[in-house]
Amino acid sequence: MDGTRRRSNICEITGLSAHQKAILTTMWRQLPRALVFDLGKRVFETVFERDPNLLVVINLEHLQCTNQWQEHVNFRTHAQ
User: Fold this and answer.
1) What are the pLDDT digits (tens) for 1-44?
2) DSSP per position, 19-71
3) 56 and 48 in contact (C-beta within 8 Å)?
4) Which GO MF terms are attached to this record (predicted)?
5) Is the pLDDT score of 46 beyond 90?
6) What is the pLDDT of residue 67?
7) Structural domain boundaries of the chain?
8) How far apart are CA 69 and CA 54, in angstroms?
């Protein structure tokens, strides 16, 4: 070697190699669509349960002290 470091094939953001990212992408694309939608819904539910103040982002601030936001059309639209 001439003293220069070999360029790393590791993503600075994810810490994954290009090969690992390709495997994850392939697996993600093979997931059933219903499962992907369910995962998205769960992420939104968790975010809004942890911080109900964030309901303002989807215009549901008036439902912050209730669980009714989970059935509201605005939530369902964003959770898709």
Assistant:
1) 455 555 668 888 889 999 999 999 999 999 999 998 899 889 98
2) HHHHHHHHHHHHS-HHHHHHHHHHHHHHHHHH-GGGGGGGT-GGGTTSSGGGG
3) no
4) heme binding; oxygen binding
5) yes
6) 84
7) 32-78
8) 12
Structure tokens at 48: 């809004």
Query: 65, 24, 69, 14: which is closest to 44 by C-alpha?
Result: 69
Of 37, 10, 32, nearest in space to 21 by CA: 10
Query: Which residues, listed in sequence order, are joined to residue 56 by a DSSP beta bridge?
Result: none
Q: Rounded to an integer, what distance in angstroms lies between the CA atom of residue 10 and that of residue 16?
A: 5
Q: Quick check: pTM over 0.90?
A: no
Could you report the per-residue pLDDT of 55-75, keeping only the tens digit for each?
898 898 998 888 888 888 888
